[in-house]
């Protein structure tokens, strides 16, 4: 096959591929290892192997090594006070697993979600480059680490959420690695059922003030606790369908929040939507994408949240079950993984102070791990949004 500039260069490609344009000398056959000079200079035989023990690498170069972390990022014990001021223990963004699923109304199993999402991310590496932008986001200014999972009891939801509240406070109170950009680390949470978002919103409110929530889901999750669970007890009233109602009652979120991808039935014909509006939410249905496309969805979200600080929560059941079968309350008629990722990438520039991807229950996935792969890509997109725009916290504004 003849290698030509048209084939290898960026002259015939779109704007996203401009970053990949090869230098002219890279088009020469010898630069591609396809022939050219055979004088034997600076050529390594195919049978080459390290002969010195010092040259044998057992640390890098494989996804099957060391601790399993999200995107093979470094692990830091963010819950320990020891050496928290050492530079290699500092971070700007921490990934936190929240293995909790005892407040779900559907199939359980999301407590295994954090480890499942990490499994789906094992072909991601900090030094990888996006085919769309040519950027290596995880290798830019922000130090991103995996904090592992927080230990949560599964015998008492009230205690478990207090444990998660504390974990968020501890992680976000550590000194940031690049304090000149922001003194407060941000958190990407891997759930866990959607109740875990309440702890994250409490933490972001404390550090950044109230936020606009961008809520990707098939369900509204603003149900009055008296409608779902609360008729039994106050304890039962806090669950994965009521947490946004409770967050509004606690003053954690702004009246400029928005749902996207909604398609599940309501419990009350009018009462649920009235309560949803009272909680500060506008709504984009899943089928809206057929009329306005991904660009229209992006525009509506940006117009709604404006210049406010934003928290993005992604319930994996926003995707169609064909793209994410491994979840507790799947609803047909959802978005494709490509549509969701395109929408997320289109939100670049927003002031994202925290995010999560939740409701992943690996036991229901297929052998190809479709849901885990999709959730990992969502996590990477959320990290990219956070890295693209450093956000100053209350601590940065203190005199």
UniProtKB/TrEMBL annotation:
Pfam families: Arginase (PF00491). Residues 30-52 are annotated as: Disordered. Its cofactor is Mn(2+). InterPro entries: Ureohydrolase (IPR006035), Ureohydrolase_dom_sf (IPR023696), Ureohydrolase_Mn_BS (IPR020855). The keyword DNA damage does not apply. Keywords: Hydrolase, Manganese, Metal-binding, Polyamine biosynthesis, Spermidine biosynthesis. GO terms for biological process: putrescine biosynthetic process from arginine, via agmatine; spermidine biosynthetic process. GO terms for molecular function: agmatinase activity; metal ion binding. It comes from the Eukaryota. Belongs to the arginase family. This is Agmatinase 1. It comes from Cytospora mali.
